[in-house]
Amino acid sequence: LTKKARAPRDATKRKTKTKKDENAMAIMIKYSALLLLVAQMVGLVLLMRYSRTNQPEDQPLYLASTAVFVMEVMKLLICCAVIAYQSNGRLLAELNTHILQSPMEIAKLSIPSFLYTVQNNLLYLALTNLDAATYQVCYQLKILTTALFSAILLQVITCW
Predict the structure, then answer these.
(1) Residue 89: pLDDT above 60?
(2) Close Cβ partners of 156 (under 8 Å, ≥ 6 residues apart)
(3) Distance between CA 149 and CA 155 in Å, rounded?
(4) Quick one: which of 31, 69, 83, 140 is 20 to 30 A from 13 by CA?
(5) What is the separation, in whole angstroms, between the first and last Cα of the chain?
(6) What is the pLDDT of residues 11-42, one digit of tens each?
(7) Residue 124: CB atoms within 10 Å
(8) CA neighbor of 64 nearest in space, from 51, 73, 78
(9) What region does 57 belong to: left with phi over 0, alpha with psi -120 to 50, or beta?
(10) CA 133 to CA 7: how far, in whole Å?
């Protein structure tokens, strides 16, 4: 009788502890992802700036479009590895479902993708011609302009 009375309480405690563990793990993953994204962005900007400004005089600069292409190929390979892992090795089936079977979705994504490619090429141009402080101010200005245009397009009035 005593064991039967304790069983539901123990199960409830285990469920609560499991949920707390899951929440702690989710928070840890979020902050880890944020930290990795910050490190990636800082590292990218520093390496881009260094590689564009510290060239010997007799060597020409590398093509920014080639660097953007290589960066995107690396992202594609990483994403494919993650999809393969999450789908238990069914990468081709997932790609078929979400790419080949959804041409309208791909068409909708092509415009932002093109603009993103142009933006990355312009980042290389900016890093080549601007000092670091001016570059950072201009680069961070995109957050303000995005918020402003979003408010205008969505017709949202905010009181600051």
Answers:
(1) yes
(2) 150
(3) 9
(4) 31
(5) 63
(6) 556 666 677 777 888 888 999 999 998 888 77
(7) 20
(8) 51
(9) alpha
(10) 63
127: how many CB neighbours lie within 10 A of its CB? 22
Which token pair is 79? 């994403």
Tokens of 72: 């995107």
Contacts of 128 (CB under 8 A, 6+ apart): 52, 53, 61
- Mean pLDDT, to the nearest integer, of 106-126? 87
HEC profile of 23-62: HHHHHHHHHHHHHHHHHHHHHHHHHHHHHHHCCCCCCCCC
The answer to whether 135 and 127 have CB atoms below 8 angstroms apart is yes
Amino acid at 7: A
Sequence length of the chain is 160
The answer to whether residue 150 scores a pLDDT higher than 80 is yes
Structure tokens at 136: 């950072």
**Tokens encoding 146:** 């995005």
Q: Which residue has the tokens 């950072």?
A: 136
Structure tokens at 116: 């993103």
Amino acid at 49: R
Pair 36, 30: CB distance under 8 Å: no
